[in-house]
Amino acid sequence: MAATAVSTLERVESYLPERSLRIEELAEHLGLRRAALGVFRKFYGLDRLRFDPDLPLSDLLRPAARAALATLPDGAHVSYLIYAHTTQAVAPPDVEVAQALRADLGLESAEAFALSQQACVSSLGAIDVAGELLRADGDPDAYALMVTGEKAYSPVVQHVPNTAIMADAAAACLVTLDGRGDRVRSFVTRTLGEYAEWLELTPEQNTEFGERYGARIAEVINQALAEAGLALDDVELVIPHNVNLLAWRQTIKELDVPAEKVFLDNVPRYSHTFASDVFVNYTTLRDEGRLTDGAHYVLVSVGLGATFGAMVVTHHRPGEPQT
Amino acid sequence: MTDRQEVISAIEKGLAEVLERQLPDITEDTRLFDDLRLDSSSVLELLLLVEDSTSAAVDPETLDIDHLRTVRSFADYVEGLLAAEEGRT
């Protein structure tokens, strides 16, 4: 297999817990004033989210992972299981989530590990890493399974001041090389270490980060498009993270595109689900028949820390000839 | 009709609630981010509170945070909203 083989996304699946709340129901839990919740609703565009403290992490991760694995062709095997998450501690210290997930999914022959260094961009980063590992191995029947999903288990994790109310969701993506699925055309990240303190930034840093958020997202989107040899006009839709509408309005202005070019329908439905948003949004669009064969899409996320990431893919429906 | 002083009073009242402390003396030149150390969320909280206590109606689609940097620009923005509101009724 050539070292230039292209990573392809063979199947994307997502899972959302059934328990759905209005953000106001979290006021006491998060210690948020009425006006603060009003800001999240009116300006940030949040409404409902999925949040089920009683659902074990393994039960959150399993459905999407199993559904993606069910599409693995006969004779193929999973060489890598990559668990991508945002919060560094997602389970008690004696639980290695990637290893537990490997056992749960019956993937004993896969090498399993976790990635979290790019926070909410880790899932896109994991797809990039999966492609590199598969290219290095050169095994034409090998696949990698990226699984993402974590729980907003504490108010400290759930409320990101000035930014988001986090919610529960999971997703999985089956990756191979030169397959029949979506072709990864480029992946660009930019990490700005001056924001490494995550939630401990000074007010000045927070303001500056917020003010430049849209411009920085636009930068990585444009760079990813340039590397893919495409322009924004060639793109059917930007599939973003669900951080909030304020940030995306700012980004839409920077990109100078019509608002319809960015898929934001899930912001009021699900809010920001850590590293899963892009894949949750992808499955919504696919299930609504809104992904066009042969069209180009940009998957975008931003991680605290801070990493800005954009991946350009060309969509291919199973069974459609490659273009 | 709400006059300028009423808008400024609504801003002062909102600021005391957002900052959860007694306000220092503020003037129209007071900078909300730099002098009072509000962040983007608390400035928006202030805007919601002022919206509640006047009849201004903010459209989140057209809001520009630059309108909210000083007490003067904040009050100008709210007065603009009120004038637009009056024009409609």
Short description:
Chain A has 10 helices and 13 strands.
Account of the 3D structure:
The complex is a heterodimer of chains A (323) and B (89). By secondary structure, chain A is of the alpha+beta class. Chain A has two domains: 7-177, Thiolase/Chalcone synthase (Peroxisomal Thiolase, Chain A, domain 1); 182-314, 3-Layer(aba) Sandwich (Peroxisomal Thiolase, Chain A, domain 1). Chain A is built from ten helices and 13 strands. Chain A has helices at residues 27-30, 34-42, 57-69, 97-105, 122-137, 155-158, 203-228, 245-255, 267-270, 277-287, and strands at 7-15, 20-22, 48-50, 77-84, 111-115, 142-150, 159-160, 164-165, 169-177, 182-191, 235-239, 296-303, 307-314. In chain A, helix 3 (57-69) packs across helix 4 (97-105) and helix 7 (203-228) packs across helix 8 (245-255). Chain A is globular and about 55 Å long. The two termini of chain A are 20 Å apart. In chain A, 53% of the residues are buried. With 89 residues, chain B is mostly helical. Chain B has helices at 4-19, 40-53, 71-88. In chain B, helix 1 packs across helix 2 (40-53) and helix 1 (4-19) packs across helix 3. The radius of gyration of chain B is 12 Å and the shape is globular. The interface between A and B is medium-sized, with 18 and 17 residues.
